[in-house]
Every structure is written in C-alpha cells, then in structure tokens.
C-alpha cells in the first residue's frame, strides 16, 4: 500500500509514518515547514518528504491519504483529496486498523507528562525483556526514535485528548482500545477546541468506556477532575497512587533525583536518576504501576528507571558554557512550567540563579486563557524573559512590566539580552512547545563565543 500523510512532521504523524514504513508500506508525506528532529528521522527511514501543500505531491498510485488534525477544509491538498474521491482516513484510525489489532495496548493520557511517562513505561518493558512497540510524541533518548513496531504483543502509546481530524472531532485516544490506561492528571487545556474542563472530562470518560473488565485504570488519588471522571462509571480494575493511597513515594532528595516506591508505607524499590521534579517522580510511579499490570516487578522497573535518560526537549541539558547551563523544555501549560522550574530550583546551590526563558505558543496560551496563571507559574525563577511569538492574541509586555520581567519582540533581541546578562552558575530553562528558533543551542554557542572573547 502507498500511503501519503498530510502533516507528516507532527510528532504523532511522523511516528505513524515510521510504523507504516516498518510494516512494509510505501510512505510519503507533506508538511509546511519540514525541520528536525522529525524530518531527520523520516529521511533516515527512507520516507519521501515534500514541503508545502501542493496537490501534485499526491502521486497517482497513492492508495490512501492520512490526514493530520492540523489540516482543515480549504487546504489545497484536502480539497484535492475530496474532489478526486481519493480514499482518506485519520492517523488514529489508521493506527487502530493496521497496528493495534491483537495488541495489549498500554496508553498514557493526561494534560501533562504523557510523553515522559510513555517513554519511561516503554523503557521499563524493554529492560524487562518484553520488546514493546511504541508510539510516543517525542524522542526517548534511550531509544533514539519516537516509534517502533516491537517484537511482542505489548504496545505503549501516548494517548492525546486533542481531536482526531476535521472530519472526526472525537479525541484521538478513543481509537486506541487500551487494556492498561494511565491517566496522569487532568486540567483545562486546548481552549481552541474544548469550551471548558467538563468537555475534556467527557472525552476522558469515553476512553474509560473502551477498557475491558480485565483491564486497569491507573490514576492519582488526589486529582479532582480525574476523580469526577471515574465517578461517572468504571468497568475495569482501578489502581490509585499518590498521597492517601496504597502506592506512594518517599523522597530522599528534595529535587526528586532519589526516591523510594512504597506500598502501604513499606519501601518496595529505590530510584536514583538524573531527572528532577516531583512531576517526574509521579510519572515514574505511574509507569511502574502500568508495567506491574503486565507482570513487571517494581524492583525491576526501578532498576530500569535508574538508567532512564529522559526525552529530547523535556528538560534536556543542551550545553554548558562559562559555568552557565542551558536546558530545553517543551512547556505548554502553567502547571507544567511550575513543576519543571520547582524541580530545577530544588537542586540549586545558594549562589546560583534560575533563569526562565519562555515562548507562550500553544493555542490555549495564544488565546490568553492562562494569562494570570502564566505570571504565577514562573515565581520560582530569579529572572524571567518572555518572547512575544507571532499569533499571540494579547501583549506579553503588560505582564512583563507588572511582574518586573523582560519582554522581547524577536529571538535575536532575546539572545542578545541573555548573552549580556547571564553570569556563571546560572541555570537557564528555555521553554516552548515550538522550535523557539533553536534558541537554546544558539544561546550555548553565543555563550561559548563570549567566553572565548573575554
């Protein structure tokens, strides 16, 4: 089969393309703005890439077009597919039909932590000799790729609540039919498609309805929104974790780099790793419990986590120059920003500063839904820089002025300011769910040049 994927450089669609290629299909695809790391993965897999929305990219021998959820009516290629009567489907539906049948699917859902928790879970299963397949919305550094078919019935998937396609407005995750479900957390997000939190909760309950009786739902005990979802009805086993439940953690280091996994107050296993933050400790426990559902002992899981190398762009250390360390983080929600910055701050020495550099870029942030929460989310940082990204419907300048932060109109101006102001010992966290004009790596290069010239 020859499939052509529209929106192929998105994290989900790019991963799907690699799975389709591994199944033996001919795969090509189009996107606007083809850039690494996904473009590198696709080209290495032998997938044909086309830049732009030109109908002639769809060859005459294409059997089916897979349309990403970023495309809508009016797009030239969408209109061409409809006009010519070419067979088309969504990415989640294609995955359901061609990859997931007869698989034990372990899905990770939630507003935050899906990519990291999915990566942890896949790594745990791999270390346990279970050779899982996976599709993850990022690149786990232990694997170096975002998707693979695997050599066993087990398949780990990052389960996103965003809508499926312009012709299917259900959440993507309702197509995945999981037997093990991790629901990490639930907050209001995706204001461009959901009017309120209740609408997202409804989609989560649609997912709950698809899990068989012998399946398992794993969720934190203290998440109010998820508890409302579960109260609507659960027909599967439930496993709760966190404060007030049987499964919880005990910190040995405040920054979350050393902790024990406990059951009914008794330590079961200990994790010492390079990750920071209580959010990652929570992610780890969720992954351990999901792995336990398919037979992996917590001690085995903890040993795997001690060798876990995180995910690209999830507080990824990109370099150090002049005693200044720079991180790249995929931030898209105020709660995630809080957790990440608190994790870094907990490991700082007294003389060190935490510098937060942010580009609000998600659709929800662009609409200004979280303005006040954004201002509060960076309270841990000693200094804050904002980039006014294109398409933002409100001005960051007023927020910056009120909070004594810095606001910049373009990345060159931001880079110049950081290069001038940063000092040895600073920990710089660059946060954006876009490319951020490659700012973290440009900053490291600029600091290296500054060090040479001094």
From TrEMBL:
EC numbers on record: 6.3.2.45
Residues covered by the Mur ligase N-terminal catalytic domain: 2-98
Catalysis performed (reactions): UDP-N-acetyl-alpha-D-muramate + L-alanyl-gamma-D-glutamyl-meso-2,6-diaminopimelate + ATP = UDP-N-acetyl-alpha-D-muramoyl-L-alanyl-gamma-D-glutamyl-meso-2,6-diaminopimelate + ADP + phosphate + H(+)
Positions that bind ATP: 110-116
Keywords for this protein: ATP-binding, Cell cycle, Cell division, Cell shape, Cell wall biogenesis/degradation, Ligase, Magnesium, Nucleotide-binding, Peptidoglycan synthesis
Example GO molecular function: ATP binding
A Gene Ontology BP annotation from the UniProt entry: cell division
Domain Mur ligase C-terminal intervals: 313-434
Broad EC category: ligase
InterPro entries attached to this UniProt entry: Mpl, Mur-like_cat_sf, Mur_ligase_C, Mur_ligase_C_dom_sf, Mur_ligase_cen, Mur_ligase_N, MurCDEF_pg_biosynth
Cofactor list: Mg(2+)
Domain annotation Mur ligase central: ranges: 108-291
Pfam families: Mur_ligase, Mur_ligase_C, Mur_ligase_M
Pathway: Cell wall biogenesis; peptidoglycan recycling
HAMAP family, A to Z: Mpl
Function: Reutilizes the intact tripeptide L-alanyl-gamma-D-glutamyl-meso-diaminopimelate by linking it to UDP-N-acetylmuramate.
Family: Belongs to the MurCDEF family. Mpl subfamily.
NCBIfam families hit by this protein: mpl
Record's protein name: UDP-N-acetylmuramate--L-alanyl-gamma-D-glutamyl-meso-2,6-diaminoheptandioate ligase
Native source organism of the sequence: Bacterioplanes sanyensis
